[in-house]
Amino acid sequence: MITSRNKLVNFDAFAKTVEDARIRTTSGGIVTLVCFILVVCLIINDWNEFRTIVIRPELVVDRDRAKRLDINVDITFPNLPCDLLTLDIMDVSGELQLDVAQYGFKKIRLDLNGKNIASEDLQIGSGESYDDSSTEVKPNQNQNQGSFDDDQLLEQFSPEYLNKYNLDHDYCGPCFGAKDQSNNEKVENEEEKVCCQTCKQVKEAYAANGWAFFDGSEIEQCEREGYVTRINERLNEGCRIYGKASINRIAGNLHFAPGASHSAPMKHIHDLSLFDKTKRFSFNHVINHFSFGEDPESSIKASLNRLKTIQVSSHPLDGFKSLKNERYHLYSHYLKVVSTRYEFLNSTVLETNQFSSTFHDRPLKGGKDEDHPHTLHAKGGIPGLFFHFDISPLKIINREQYAKSWGSFLLSVCSAVGGVLAVGAVIDRTVWEADKVLRRKKDT
């Protein structure tokens, strides 16, 4: 009687031989040892590959373009005093941010050797200042050290300002033609009079009219506040400026230029009168740091340090220097910005931005390029440092993953073992047959 077990014997693809019929040889043992070593090496290699962390990029449409984007700036200007620097931001939508450096940025005055003289928190009314050598916040320490914030604060409380400089309570400062004050005598309410009480207000009135302000000399408010003296004392200083600004996610530019800025129809103008005061001034610059987006937390920085390729592409401008000592010169950086997300194995997510940079500079007088005689530069413009940025509508998602899954690892191990044993069997059979042929010839 044929049982079901006997039927299954017919399907056995792995027929066995009797132990006594097996022949073991020295060559077969050598081949077996070599195969074993190869299998172990291949398994170790597969394991290392399985544990290798890789970044798998994916390109998608950026759906966060309605959100504003932060720009982190830290730049040193060794040949320009802080009082002369103005930072403006504009974009193709028409949004214009004038004198951004006065709100939330920090300026550090530098001597001729590049060492810190004093630091100023330029966020008006912050109540914080800095010591001579550190950029760490020191609340309520040296609050009036080399800063104009004192009178900027007092202008909000006119009695204090008037008392400080022994002025009459009905004092109304002249605007020197920058504002119409002809009707002041007819106005009974003091608050409705058109006045320029402080040097800063006169300066703003001049800028609104597009007038040159120079160093404030012969303007009674500036003379009274010591503005003229301080400006002339600082002509040989440098400046380091750092902080954060916010922009729309569209094309535009961020630029540093000398003097107060104002807008006119189809124009953006800077007061260059003080820039002409000394030949020392130039827009030599060192970019300590320039980036888009938030600074990653320490836990995410550890992951970034492990992935060196990310570090290289994140901050290409860090450490950039341009020290040509050209006075009337325009320096431009053209930036292509791409939003980027990093998703790490520890479930942390970093929303940041990558950008590429192309540098170009030219003299304002135009003419032939010094290095390329066949290239002509356009004439005109203002001396300054410009960052032209263009935001991509696409977004890169970089996912941190292991190079292989468990299934791929097991499949790779099985393939390695099976392949080595199959090749080993062929080699063993070939050696065995060759040995038999040689023995027959020897016997004959």
From TrEMBL:
<dbReference type="GO" id="GO:0033116">
    <property type="term" value="C:endoplasmic reticulum-Golgi intermediate compartment membrane"/>
</dbReference>
<keyword id="KW-0472">Membrane</keyword>
<feature type="domain" description="Endoplasmic reticulum vesicle transporter C-terminal">
    <location>
        <begin position="175"/>
        <end position="428"/>
    </location>
</feature>
<keyword id="KW-0812">Transmembrane</keyword>
<feature type="compositionally biased region" description="Polar residues">
    <location>
        <begin position="136"/>
        <end position="147"/>
    </location>
</feature>
<dbReference type="GO" id="GO:0006890">
    <property type="term" value="P:retrograde vesicle-mediated transport, Golgi to endoplasmic reticulum"/>
</dbReference>
<dbReference type="Pfam" id="PF13850">
    <property type="entry name" value="ERGIC_N"/>
</dbReference>
<dbReference type="InterPro" id="IPR039542">
    <property type="entry name" value="Erv_N"/>
</dbReference>
<comment type="function">
    <text>Plays a role in transport between endoplasmic reticulum and Golgi.</text>
</comment>
<feature type="region of interest" description="Disordered">
    <location>
        <begin position="128"/>
        <end position="150"/>
    </location>
</feature>
<feature type="transmembrane region" description="Helical">
    <location>
        <begin position="28"/>
        <end position="47"/>
    </location>
</feature>
<dbReference type="Pfam" id="PF07970">
    <property type="entry name" value="COPIIcoated_ERV"/>
</dbReference>
<dbReference type="GO" id="GO:0030134">
    <property type="term" value="C:COPII-coated ER to Golgi transport vesicle"/>
</dbReference>
<dbReference type="GO" id="GO:0006888">
    <property type="term" value="P:endoplasmic reticulum to Golgi vesicle-mediated transport"/>
</dbReference>
<dbReference type="GO" id="GO:0000139">
    <property type="term" value="C:Golgi membrane"/>
</dbReference>
<dbReference type="GO" id="GO:0061852">
    <property type="term" value="C:retrograde transporter complex, Golgi to ER"/>
</dbReference>
<dbReference type="GO" id="GO:0005789">
    <property type="term" value="C:endoplasmic reticulum membrane"/>
</dbReference>
<keyword id="KW-1133">Transmembrane helix</keyword>
<feature type="transmembrane region" description="Helical">
    <location>
        <begin position="406"/>
        <end position="427"/>
    </location>
</feature>
<feature type="domain" description="Endoplasmic reticulum vesicle transporter N-terminal">
    <location>
        <begin position="9"/>
        <end position="97"/>
    </location>
</feature>
<keyword id="KW-0256">Endoplasmic reticulum</keyword>
<comment type="similarity">
    <text>Belongs to the ERGIC family.</text>
</comment>
<keyword id="KW-0813">Transport</keyword>
<keyword id="KW-0931">ER-Golgi transport</keyword>
<dbReference type="InterPro" id="IPR012936">
    <property type="entry name" value="Erv_C"/>
</dbReference>
<keyword id="KW-0333">Golgi apparatus</keyword>
<protein>
    <recommendedName>
        <fullName>Endoplasmic reticulum-Golgi intermediate compartment protein</fullName>
    </recommendedName>
</protein>
<dbReference type="InterPro" id="IPR045888">
    <property type="entry name" value="Erv"/>
</dbReference>
